[in-house]
Amino acid sequence: MDDFELELKKGFLEEASQLIGDTEQCFLSLESTPEDPKLLEKIFRLAHNLKGSAKAVGFADLGLFTHHFESFLLKVKNGQIPSSKAAIDLLLRSNDHLRKFVDSLSQDLNAVVDSTVLISELEHPSAEILMPSLAAESLSSPETSVPAESAPAPTETFSAEEIALANKTEDVISELPSSENLQAEFSEMLAAQPAIEPNLESPIIPIKQVAKTPDPSPAPAQATSSNNSGSNESIRVSLQRVEKLIDYVGELVILESVMKSNITTVQNDTFRRTLSQIDKVTKEIQDMTMGLRMVPLKQTFQKMQRIVRDTSGLLNKKVRIVLDGEDTEVDKTVLESLGDPLVHLIRNACDHGIETPEQRIQKGKNPEGEIRLSAFHRSGRLIIEIRDDGAGIDGARLKTKAMEKGILSNLNQMSDQDGINLIFHPGFSTKAEVSEVSGRGVGMDVVKTNIERLQGNIQIETKIGSGTIFKVSLPLTVAIIEGLVIRAGTEKYVVPLAQVHETVRIKASEIDNKTGIGEVFSLRGEAMNLFRLTKLLGRNIKQDKLDPESAILVFREGDQPYCILIDEILGQQQIVVKKLGNELSHIKGFSGSSILGDGRPALILETSDLLNQRRAA
Amino acid sequence: MSQDSVRYISFNLGEEQFATPLLSVREVIGVPDTTPIPQAAAHFIGIMNLRGQVVSIMDLRKKLGIKPLANEAERAVMICDLGGLSLGIIVDSVNQVLTLDSDSISPKPSLGTSMEHEYIWGVYRKESTLILFLDIAKSLSLEESIMLKNGQTSRAA
Known about the structure:
The structure holds two protein chains of two kinds.
Chain A: H1 3-32, H2 37-57, H3 60-77, H4 85-107, H5 116-123, H6 127-130, H7 136-145, H8 158-175, H9 179-192, H10 201-212, H11 218-228, H12 239-261, H13 269-291, E1 294-296, H14 298-315, E2 319-324, E3 329-331, H15 332-353, H16 357-362, E4 369-378, E5 381-388, H17 395-404, H18 416-420, H19 444-453, E6 457-463, E7 467-475, E8 480-488, E9 491-496, E10 502-505, E11 511-512, E12 520-523, E13 526-532, H20 533-536, E14 551-555, E15 562-566, E16 568-576, E17 590-595, E18 601-605, H21 607-616
Parallel strand pairs in A: 2-4, 9-18, 13-15
Antiparallel strand pairs in A: 1-3, 4-5, 5-7, 6-7, 8-9, 8-16, 10-14, 11-12, 12-13, 14-15, 17-18
Chain B: E1 5-13, E2 16-21, E3 25-29, E4 44-50, E5 53-58, H1 60-64, E6 76-82, E7 85-91, E8 93-101, E9 106-107, E10 120-126, E11 129-134, H2 136-156
Parallel strand pairs in B: 2-11, 5-7
Antiparallel strand pairs in B: 1-2, 1-8, 3-6, 4-5, 6-7, 9-10, 10-11
């Protein structure tokens, strides 16, 4: 495969996943408004575009599948197959297959995906899909006379003819020698019309529409692009380029600040004025480049629609999902790590939150449950709420359960509110049986860990009988964090501020080192383990003497609070996070690096990793 | 320049001369300020800020057991692109750009040096000069696994 072909294929796959993503919403809306011709039109266009390009770049199998998919769609579009639930199910499954297909090709250009089952279903729709139509008979009879050239035998099945018709349409499009020829061919077809039975009209319409346009295939494409253009015109840029741009802008900001710190030595007024203008422009540029990483939540949210549909179907529950704030923007990296936790929370809401229709009727609720997924910005953070109107979480019951499982030793020590937070405990599940959907007790703790890894947090508000709200708060970006710049020994380090619970000045006399479990510091009567950062970093420094600026950072993220002794807190500032290269991947304890105001890089500490490493030692 | 001739950049590590394809070297800079990485291997000098990009700096001499030149005046860092990874390599001097046909490079000989031969894929001799062709990426990936092993054993000890 030469470079050009490779490039073509890659380009196609990227475009294909974009197209599939764009059309996802149409599939989902089909269920509520199956009659909407615009939806089918859009999906049809997707299949048609993919089919053409897939074949052109040499993905023959994908081309074949999309061909059958398109043929089936054509039948639905023409009304020969009613858009029943069964038909939409098949469409959705085809959409999934298409996505999987494109995904596996993206990973391996030579991947082989088996589509035979789905193709045969599309080719020979089950009775369930065909049945609701009594028109099957009357439709097929005129059909036979339409493709005069192919002259199908009357015994041939309805669907095979239909594909022949679709192929014919395709041929008209692709061959298309000139408009004269087309007209000639078309008038031939028109000439044949009088001989056909009166109810022929509807199936032939698509051909007419296609044939009328002198150059039909680019037409839909133009329509799409003109729809997209206008106010929201956009181009696609690789993330790598954006990151490079951010790097350079970061450097610009540092250089500019060096210049600013020397301004007092400059007498020239024009120079000073220009510098302050540069300062403003630089800030604008920095804000804008950071904004380039921001993407709307839309696609992730829409995926949740599908999750609710599938999960509730599996559980025989009726659940409606309401989306709110889909256009809220968030950093691409945050978004990518947000998908899995969200899916889990949504599944949980369907499984544990929403009751069965019978239970709901008993409680006097609408038999159809509602999950509301909303997103908004609040004080520089992204808030995502997953609100269900289900049974709520019973804190007392969770506590009893925790007792039985031996997670908790004394019931009375814990309030019911704290009991609710037990669902984040590893290995905890209240569901009596393990269902296909959830209940294995792995998950909520992972959800919490994932969210905390993104410097976020999750809270629960619940009321027994009326529902639960999971509130996830996340930073808008992981590219910039609020950081504490500290010194340990001679080096500067950064600690993400979100991890630090508090900072306290400390004297050597306050450290108790006679405990037998290492050094202990007592903070307002609460004893906690104390670790010296220099030691955690593998440097040996004299024990007794402390720097006058010494302080401790208190961490309360795990089960046990602990504190870390550092030599000086230098300040708090916004930190542009840069990943460390692969050559450093084996060194644990650092989540990245950042370039500080003095132009030198500093490491960002991941204190929990540092501690784990020490414990493992 | 004939078709299969390639340009190489030659440099000194201690007294010995090495060369690597010119295209794998992005730029040559003076020895920068670096931030050390705790618990990294000894030849890992630290990380530097290269116009907003954080780049690791390695000392190949330490790794290959070569005694550095006493004269530091010519010392420089070559920023190399090794398969998507940018690394800085400290060298005692950067000497020249050589354009060589592939036949003028002899295959790896059995040298009398203490050096690990895997890093060397060829030699070039001209009069009294001997230039060793160094595969930087190979030497580093090898070193990385060694580093990992050492790290584990020292922690266990």
